[in-house]
Amino acid sequence: MGHRRWIFVAMAGVFACATPAFAQANRSLEKCQKEISNRLGKYVAAKEKVLGNCLAKVARELIKSNDPIADAARACGAQLRKLASASKPDKTLREKTRAKILKRCDPGSNPKIDHTAAQVLDLVPPMVPQGIEAKNLDTWCSYFDFDPNSVPAYADGSLDSIDEWLDCAFAVADCNADSAVVTQVPRAVEWLVAIEPEIVALGDRYTDAVTALDEIQDAIDILGNGSPTINCGPGVDSCGDAIANGTDQCDGADLDGATCATLGFKGGTLACDAACYYDFSGCIPGAFPATGQTVSYLAGDDGDLELGAAFNLTNNGDGTISDTNSGLMWEVKDNAGGLHDRDGQYTWTNSFDVFLDQMNATCDGDESTPCTADADCTGIGNELCGHAGYRDWRMPNRTELQTIVNLGASTPAVPSEFDDSCSGSCDVTSCSCTRSTAVAKYWSSSTYVAGDTQAWYVDFGEGDTNFDGKFTTQFVRAVRAGGF
Fold this sequence. Notes:
By secondary structure, the chain is α+β, with helices and mostly antiparallel strands. The chain has three domains: 2-220, no CATH class; 244-284, no CATH class; 313-481, no CATH class. The protein is built from eleven helices and 15 strands. The protein has helices at 2-15, 23-64, 73-80, 93-105, 117-121, 162-184, 188-200, 207-220, 302-305, 348-361, 398-402; strands spanning 267-268, 271-272, 278-279, 283-284, 313-315, 320-323, 328-331, 345-346, 362-363, 366-370, 441-447, 454-459, 465-469, 474-475, 479-481. The strands form six sheets. Strands 5-6-7-15 form a four-stranded antiparallel β-sheet, with no helix packed on it. It has a three-stranded antiparallel β-sheet with strand order 11-12-13. The longest helix has 42 residues, at 23-64. Mean pLDDT is 82; it is low at 1-22 and 123-131.
């Protein structure tokens, strides 16, 4: 999206103003620059993941599953507590990141550092040919003043300390993360408002989560009118110039190249509202997927026409993959040797009686502990009952399984989201696996009508489908929610 391009440039401006050339102090300054660049990049990714996981949970309950939104509160609260802590403020994501940067950049925090604070800021002529020259960012940092009622020290037009320099850097990072979230989840403000009372109802243990939630809402809805509005960075006042730039998702007729289809809908007409955010009211949800085949062997064949919606899959980072086209949520398989291991095989009956029982009735992250509610998993794994906190996992029917066959791939014939970083003993939070052999039969819930002792499977080795005796052992992948 166009509105994110300037933000990455902005972050580069904070991280690297000049490159130290030589001598011991120069090497020390260079390490400082690398540290702030690497650490803030990871901070942005981690904050996006925190907010993304929370909003994905809300979306599943509110839209796909039609479950009460309260079911998402505990998972959301657990994520948001990473951003605020009254009792242990030094343990928040921001402060842990800040401490690591200070250790490499601030002589006041680490006397072993070979450069001075003056060399970082260039308040005085440096002892080396080039310092980091953070002072050059004085005016630029004022673009990242989030509070309309008071001007923080870093935004007053003069960076006078390393702390102010870092405050500016974190303001840029927060702007980046918050802008990314409202772009990826246009209903973020609405859903955060809806989930807050449910988190409050969980009690004092989640007070920090509420604090973090309020800060995020203030940042992404500065007008307080329930619509996503972010006021940070150069070009924030560009809405209304008929060009999708600055923080705009769109502007008038300029939709920045987006359509309902590219944003995961079946079709329809995408529009732009007065605040320069997408209006999805004209989009049609649900789309039958394309096969994934893009190579044509004859005019008019599948690879030529490429009919159907392109795969629109999101790995939620919690052991699940969501399919926007179908509304289905899939279990992620891993290589860790447990319940989700890609090599696990079951008879057709045991797929229901054994595998699904563990998916729905054991604690997430510790499948040896039985549960019937989240309260049974307090202090265990992710404190959620059922895989990723859901207790309605089921076996997919044959048609559902075929929606994740990618005929443009083989061994395995799946989209990349189902075959990503699968190595070593990775688990569902760090990889996504599919059996990568020429024959990789996955059970469906569909019985073969001509013989009820047999059931249909989909072979993800090459992408075909057939039936086999229910007494044989095959691979499994659970699914929940959904339907076109």
